[in-house]
Design a protein that fits this description.
Largest sheet of chain A: 9 strands, mixed
Radius of gyration of chain A: 17 Å
Strand content of chain A: 15-25%
Distance between the termini of chain A: 39 Å
Largest interface: A-B, 41 and 36 residues
Number of strands of chain A: 9
Strand order of the largest sheet of chain A: 4-3-2-1-5-9-8-7-6
Oligomer: homotetramer
Amino acid sequence: MTIDEAPAVGGSPSRTEQETRRLLTELLGVFYTKGWVSGTGGGICGPADGGGLLLAPTGVHKERIRTDEFFTVDPADGHVVRRPDNPDLRPSECNSIFCLAVREREAGSVVHSHALSAVLAGDLAGAADHVAIRDLEMLKGIRGLTNRDVHLVPVIRNTPREAELVEQLTAVLADPRFAGAFAVVVADHGAYIWGADVWEAKRHTEVYHFLFEAAVARRDRGEERSR
Amino acid sequence: MTIDEAPAVGGSPSRTEQETRRLLTELLGVFYTKGWVSGTGGGICGPADGGGLLLAPTGVHKERIRTDEFFTVDPADGHVVRRPDNPDLRPSECNSIFCLAVREREAGSVVHSHALSAVLAGDLAGAADHVAIRDLEMLKGIRGLTNRDVHLVPVIRNTPREAELVEQLTAVLADPRFAGAFAVVVADHGAYIWGADVWEAKRHTEVYHFLFEAAVARRDRGEERSR
Amino acid sequence: MTIDEAPAVGGSPSRTEQETRRLLTELLGVFYTKGWVSGTGGGICGPADGGGLLLAPTGVHKERIRTDEFFTVDPADGHVVRRPDNPDLRPSECNSIFCLAVREREAGSVVHSHALSAVLAGDLAGAADHVAIRDLEMLKGIRGLTNRDVHLVPVIRNTPREAELVEQLTAVLADPRFAGAFAVVVADHGAYIWGADVWEAKRHTEVYHFLFEAAVARRDRGEERSR
Amino acid sequence: MTIDEAPAVGGSPSRTEQETRRLLTELLGVFYTKGWVSGTGGGICGPADGGGLLLAPTGVHKERIRTDEFFTVDPADGHVVRRPDNPDLRPSECNSIFCLAVREREAGSVVHSHALSAVLAGDLAGAADHVAIRDLEMLKGIRGLTNRDVHLVPVIRNTPREAELVEQLTAVLADPRFAGAFAVVVADHGAYIWGADVWEAKRHTEVYHFLFEAAVARRDRGEERSR
């Protein structure tokens, strides 16, 4: 990643769709290095010109997607309005989930993580429908939170196909306990994490992975958080 | 790794042998970074023109292999049909194992991993001849599986030389319990992981390493997978 | 990171402010890779020409800061004497903490880490106000210490805003038990680590993270350090 | 690291001293990424023209050493026969240890690791003077070993200065139990690992770190190695 070419200000929208395409492919490379996408699992979407959503194809090695390989879908219903030239590509199965987050939470960008830390954080929920995360400064990295908040991250059950997660996710997004959440953990699977634009989605993605790792590490040690 | 030059579509065969050679050397570099090959251990093979198999040399630092340093072997019997110019190079000890996977499972590419996670996953088997992996979305990354499957990964005993693993591996590949497996763990050693072509072998390699890490992490915590 | 262009001698001040700016941005990239800054959290400062302090902006992805995006502040009182052209940037919340370390410890450079290992090391303190680290050669990497020393690293409570940490930090810096410390852990948060110049701050940052990881690993295993 | 430019054949000596200098600096960069050298700790030496030993300077950030910053010392007694132009540089404290390994074991290259895994492996020794490593294929990566061997790695006590380790190391190198070892762990400190040339030292370095990590991971889980 070249430091001097990338815009530094979080929260600023990319200025052109081509910039967004470059940023999405670059972030998939970063996330691959961190182990958050692998084995063709995981993905990302971001804003296209004209209100559409740039969507990675399914079944491909995500860290190798080219800027001309995104689909553009209409977030109102997920139908494809523009497709890449390569006829072998099909749109990501995340489509319906991504569109739901865009519609219900005004997300401009959504990351789908296959990180082990997300799976292990989901295990912490046990029979509950959420994990409670507290006592961490990094909570301030989530829009609207302070480091004094107890943050409830919803955990939903995994289903055979990602599209079938929509029903559970719809319920979770309507649940007032989770109004402040920008992530949903899917047990045994990973997480969906979003933000108002690609930069906020990146920040939230990094913050939630830190929170997952911290929650798992503290549980492993069976220690109380003191102080 | 340059994102824009690499083909993105999993499952597409490389178009030329030279592309395959470049991809194999690149993947060895990626696997070295992830700790899956190191200390000259581990390796990879892929399809040569004319039905042969490109095979890395033995005893070399795998992340530094050059595209002109592969042997070409006949997978029918493993004999060398073309060798690199460098007279010091000898073909990898994986030869007979790789050829077996090619013949018995129609593998186009096989990865030999020396990852610690594969060794620790092998430890989980105890006296059994397999590890059962379940309750993970990443199972869908293995051809033919759903995330509801209980996937049995065979675990065989280590032997003084890799060629001597052939007898055990032959039995495992004929065992109907393991018909859906694209990997064999060798206890105290690592794993062999394959696919129809290099891209599928890469995807399976990433997926199985995730499964190994998840199985080990869940065992460590002694938790039941709920939900 | 290009090996041949970077000055190698630890302790030598950078020769120009522009070199310092380049080094600070490069180090943020290295620290991001290691997980010590992420999610826009963490930061760094270093010496500007004329006695000022180069300070990264707040709320930005730290590994992507450009060399022209630093603020220059007066360490006597933290007020901004020069600001970057980009009007959206605001100075880092670390400002008052960084200036305190500069004034009270003659620090030329301060790193703010959001590493999980720092948080977990803080957990080790329990109700105490410090963590004691001993029996490690890496202690010699901290100016003034031998590997026979028992090094007390102060641990302070986290507060809603970083500026409010100043009161606790002032007390810690005046405490003779911590006279040899070049780091303060903030529980549930991370650490501030400093040095006489950027190179010493880098060395101390790497050493303290090693010490945090070692202390946590040894505590997890519940082993006594023998020998 | 560029794959196509690096010589691939382990065991082949570099052809020129300048190549050796480049390789030593490159390996320090790789080891820094892996966490084996950090905080100016750790180091490496390799063969100079005319039978001398290229030695990194002390107190510098090892991953940033330039090819013109090595000292050349006479391994017979460690005295400096050629020094870099930079007058601020002093030869590494590893000098006497490195020379000892060169003289007593005909090492052509020695790596000094500050890896946490080496420290934790040293902890496993308890009151004993060695760690026994067995049941790992990676043992074959050490010259002369099979995967059926029980490999004894000597563990010596740490001392205030590295030069003072010489007495213990001299005893260890004369001990027939450790005749097959290419590494010595220094408790609370790290390890010295060597080979006949830089490539073998690299291979041994990677193999021993794998063995350290495996031994620690298996001890943590308290499992017996079965099969």
